[in-house]
User: Which sequence fits this backbone?
């Protein structure tokens, strides 16, 4: 018996769609308020987080010297790999309509961004990229920051959650993007530790 991968994938999306749409509408409508409506759309914008990125560059290069610059390179590599794998590989081969582009779903949700991206909803590149960065930062900066390094996962979760809240991704797309991102961040951090070593303040 010949199994058609495309048909199996279509059946899979049809299977999870009711649960995904249910959770989406709860996050987008039932678990919302005016404060979140105002603040969360900014959370997904890169420019909003520029001060954080600048702080990390200054913090690592000032405290760790040449290792700090290698850390910055690893951070950039992590973000680039996450984008390539999620946006250029997975999204180009696995097409899922975004909730904001689904005529059935759009009538049930509120939409908070200026346009609906035409790219595939699976996986969420925002979730993939930021969880990759969060995992990389957590594993490489934990020896210096201790338990506070866990805050990076809160940061990534807020951005990933926002993707569902504003209506551009289903929860499953965000969840898978986050898992993929964690794997990428873990891999790059292990490579960093192997080639560069642990970050320590002398």
Assistant:
């Amino acid at each position: 018996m010949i199994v058609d991968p495309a048909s199996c994938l279509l059946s899979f999306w049809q299977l999870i769609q009711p649960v995904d749409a249910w959770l989406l509408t709860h996050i987008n409508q039932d678990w919302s308020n005016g404060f979140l409506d105002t603040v969360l759309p900014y959370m997904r914008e890169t420019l909003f987080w520029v001060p954080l990125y600048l702080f990390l560059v200054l913090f690592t290069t000032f405290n760790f010297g040449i290792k700090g610059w290698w850390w910055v390179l690893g951070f950039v590599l992590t973000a680039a790999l996450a984008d390539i794998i999620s946006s250029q590989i997975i999204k180009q081969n696995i097409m899922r309509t975004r909730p904001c582009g689904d005529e059935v779903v759009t009538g049930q949700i509120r939409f908070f961004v200026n346009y609906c991206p035409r790219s595939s909803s699976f996986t969420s590149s925002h979730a993939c990229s930021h969880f990759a960065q969060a995992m990389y930062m957590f594993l490489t900066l934990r020896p210096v920051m201790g338990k506070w390094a866990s805050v990076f996962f809160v940061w990534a979760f807020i951005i990933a959650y926002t993707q569902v809240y504003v209506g551009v991704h289903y929860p499953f797309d965000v969840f898978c993007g986050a898992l993929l991102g964690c794997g990428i961040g873990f891999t790059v951090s292990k490579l960093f530790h192997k080639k560069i070593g642990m970050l320590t303040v002398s």
